[in-house]
Amino acid sequence: MSQAAARPENIRPVSFNEALSERYLAYALSTITSRSLPDVRDGLKPVQRRLLYAMLQLRLDPASGYKKCARVVGDVIGKFHPHGDVAVYDALVRLAQEFAQRYPLVDGQGNFGNVDGDSAAAMRYTESRLTEVAMALLQGIDEDSVDFRPTYDDSEREPVVLPAAFPNLLANGSAGIAVGMATSIPPHNAGELLRAVAWMLEQPAEAPLPAIDRLLEHVKGPDLPTGGILVETPAVLAEMYRTGRGSLRLRARWEVEQLAYGQYQLVVTEIPYQVQKSRLVERLAELLAAKKVPLLGDLRDESAETVRIVLQPRSRGVQPELLMEQLFRASDLEVRLAVNMNVLDGTGTPRVMSLAEMLQAFIDHRMEVLVRRTNFRLGKIADRLELLEGYLKAFLDIDRVIRIIRDSDEPKPELIAAFELTERQAEAILNLRLRNLRKLEEMALRKEHDALLAEQGELQGLLASEPRRRKTLRAEMLEGVRRFGGGPLGRRRTEMGEAPSVDVELLDAPVERFPVTVVLSEKGWIRAQRGHVEKPGEIKYKDGDAERFVLRAQSSDKLLLLTSDGRCFQLAADKLPSGRGHGEPLALLVDLPKGADVLALRVYRPDGRLVVGTAQGRGFVAVEKDIAAQTRAGRQVVNVAEGDRLVALAPVEGDLVATVGNNHKILIFRLDELPEMARGRGVILQRFKDAELTDLVTLTEQSGMVWQANGQQRQYRELGGYMGKRGGTGRLAPRGFPKTDRFG
After folding, report:
1. Cβ pair 325, 506 in contact under 8 A
2. How many CA atoms lie less than 13 Å away from 133 in the CB half-sphere?
3. Catalysed reaction per UniProt (predicted)?
4. Is-contact 175 183, C-beta < 8 A?
5. Where does the pLDDT of residue 1 fall: very low under 50, low under 70, confident under 90, or very high at 90 and above?
6. Share of the chain above pLDDT 90, in %
């Protein structure tokens, strides 16, 4: 028997790549639709929806007592969500945290964590129940308002989506990472959202989606549970809500407290959303210790129930706005709030929606819920009317009914035949108690019958009229504004503001900006001494050491150091060793390559450009901000070949480049012939045969060539004979040019 014939029918050969791709795709789709992305209709992920439904079944409404969270988690895992208890409890905790949820869905009792980042107590200690907002999400769930589906073991049924009489998706926001996509929706003010929805319901049903500018008249922007100030322009907000993607700057809220003798202190009262206060204070303390925010003198955390971080300036002359701007730039007192409104639409398809599309999806869902609840109520009314009509028929000749019941062995068919009843009506009459045969009971039945007929007519008219349904929904939204848009819970917490304009130079400057002289000796000892040394002879060196670089700078300057192997390092002048001694070896500050020599030490200019050249005559133009590196290892800027080295560089101060080799030949060409690169070997500057490049400068036709000879400065303006194309061999230097073959 062949191997193929012996194989069972339920086993088929499949390539490993095909099987792996199918299973990974199934996993990705499951992650997207069942774990990470919220539903646009109720704004919930499956675990959150199952938590709320399980708590409803446990009768944990706001009027009842609390139950242990372990009981809730156990019900969710056992009935609806076969996952780990830690993940379910974490989801429950987040729904109860007032600093995470703008409108908490769970009312927690016990330790549910805090803004410092401390975790919640174990689920056996904490208790929970639903909030009014959660009850609004569940409102009408037992009135056939939404679809139900079997649970994972087919023993229970769970809702596919909640009725959601509250715009939870935008009100509480959502965040999640799936496979290949993510979502990040900030919380908003429910009162503003409901007013926007009410305004949209005033428009005709066939009207197109409203313009974002009109919606922004109602929705001012995100409203975060921890407050803060959003510093973005209306145009940025409008574009974010139009496209569903964007990024917003969120700042902490702070105020000035005046002290005695003209002193003051700054107090941070609200920190950005999802920033841990303890980590923020640690970061501020690190910046203070490292002197990276020189305007800050001290800080302390005086927070209790509310946030209170006290910042003391270094002196009373420091401007509060300037100090805060330094802290905003250096710490999480200012963060970027990423927005990616990626959700599952009504069909379960993930897509990025605009603000108008999200609000319209909420309206569509509520309209469907309204229609289903109305049909459900009509069914209940029809059932009751059927019974009432049977009762009323019986009351017309109650004596005959009693006689049939008393005398007949099978009264049910006789009642049906005598009074033209249905089986349900006959059964209901047979189940009537004798005490309900009073005259007053007949009057009550007629009154109920008339009321139900009137209600039935109203509901049928509601189903037949789109404008009436929109009017009903609008009244519902305005009722929501009354319930959730007022009081401390509904008051807007996040302020919309503009970032103050601060002079960048003042912002980057420390409290004390003073001149320094940076000295790097021949043997590699570096120091920065206060003040500008006028006479080089005033600088002292170790025995056997001598001057290499003497640079005038400011204490706030950054320095660029380039080595012959093509590396670039960035140093901070205020971090260099003191000038009281001979300094420290440069090797303690940066990892100098073995055998490499320091070629240049200069003040860093972010907008500056340098022309670099190697001994073999190759080079390019480098932008200083692209080559600066603050790491100890530096950044490889010039890729030097074997036997080559970086020998010359010059700042771009003209539109011409002059190069010279040790063959005493000079070539001048235009700067725009050189490429601008962040790293590489570059192009040929000047061709040499048995010679090397020794120096280069940039110049203009007006300035001409300038060099130092015998302690005097010489100038040569007759450049025509030396002009040529890049890559030429050049011409012998003019009389008087230094024998060192260098311009300086």
Report:
1. no
2. 24
3. ATP-dependent breakage, passage and rejoining of double-stranded DNA
4. yes
5. very low
6. 62
Distance CA 667, CA 728 (A): 7
3-state secondary structure 131-168: CHHHHHHHCCCCCCCCCEEECCCCCCEEECCCCCCCCH
Catalytic residue among 24, 27, 125, 264: 125
- Across the range 343-367, mean pLDDT stands at 94
**% residues pLDDT > 70 (the chain):** 96
**Residue of 233, 230, 237 whose CA lies nearest to 494:** 230
Structure confidence at residue 7 as a pLDDT band (50, 70, 90): low
Instruction: Give the whole-angstrom CA distance, residue 395 versus residue 389.
Output: 10
Q: Which ranges of 334-409 would DSSP assign to H, the alpha helix?
A: 355-396, 398-407
Cα dihedral: 184, 189, 191, 192 (round 10): -80
- Residue pLDDT, tens place only, 239-297: 999 999 999 999 999 999 999 888 999 999 999 999 999 999 999 999 988 888 888 99
What is the distance, to the nearest Å, from the Cα of residue 441 to the centroid of all Cα atoms in its chain? 65
Q: Residue 156: CB partners within 8 Å, gap ≥ 6?
A: 79, 80, 150
Q: What is this structure's pTM? A: 0.69
Question: Which of the following CATH numbers is that of domain 253-332: 3.40.630.30, 3.30.2010.10, 3.30.2350.10, 3.30.1360.40?
Answer: 3.30.1360.40
CB 652 within 8 A of CB 623: no
Going by C-alpha positions, the residue among 636, 645, 656 that lies closest to residue 696 is 656
Buried b (16+ CB within 10 A) or exposed e, 260-279: eeeeebbebebbbbbbbbee
Could you tell me if 325 and 294 are in contact, meaning their C-beta atoms sit under 8 angstroms apart?
A: no
Q: How many CB atoms lie within 10 A of CB 65?
A: 9
In whole angstroms, give the CA distance from residue 373 to residue 378: 8
Tell me which DSSP letter residue 536 carries.
G
Q: Which fold has domain 37-166?
A: Topoisomerase II; domain 5 (3.90.199)
Backbone angles phi, psi at 44, to 5 degrees: -115, 150
Give 74's pLDDT tier (boundaries 50, 70, 90): very high
Q: Which two tokens stand for residue 599?
A: 């070629």
Q: Which fold has domain 505-732?
A: Neuraminidase (2.120.10)
Query: CA-CA distance, 54 to 66, in Å (whole number)?
Result: 14
Tell me the DSSP string of 478-535.
Answer: HHHHHHHSSHHHHS--SEEE-PPP--HHHHHS-SS--EEEEEEETTSEEEEEES--S-
Q: How many angstroms separate the CA atoms of 50 and 428, rounded?
A: 39
Strand, coil or helix: 412? helix
Look at the block and give the residue holding tokens 């509060």. 320
Nearest to 548 by CA among 565, 531, 527, 569: 527
Q: Are 520 and 576 in contact (CB under 8 A)?
A: no
**Dist CA 145 CA 161 (whole Å):** 10
Token readout for 594 is 């073995």
Query: Alpha-carbon Rg of the chain, whole angstroms?
Result: 40
| Among candidate residues 647, 682, 483, the one with its CA nearest the CA of residue 565 | 647
Helical spans, DSSP H, in 175-276: 190-202, 212-215, 234-243
Question: Measured between alpha carbons, how far apart are the two ends of the chain, in Å?
Answer: 93
Domain boundary assignment for the chain: 37-166, 253-332, 505-732
Of residues 525, 584, 534, 532, the one with CA closest to residue 553: 532
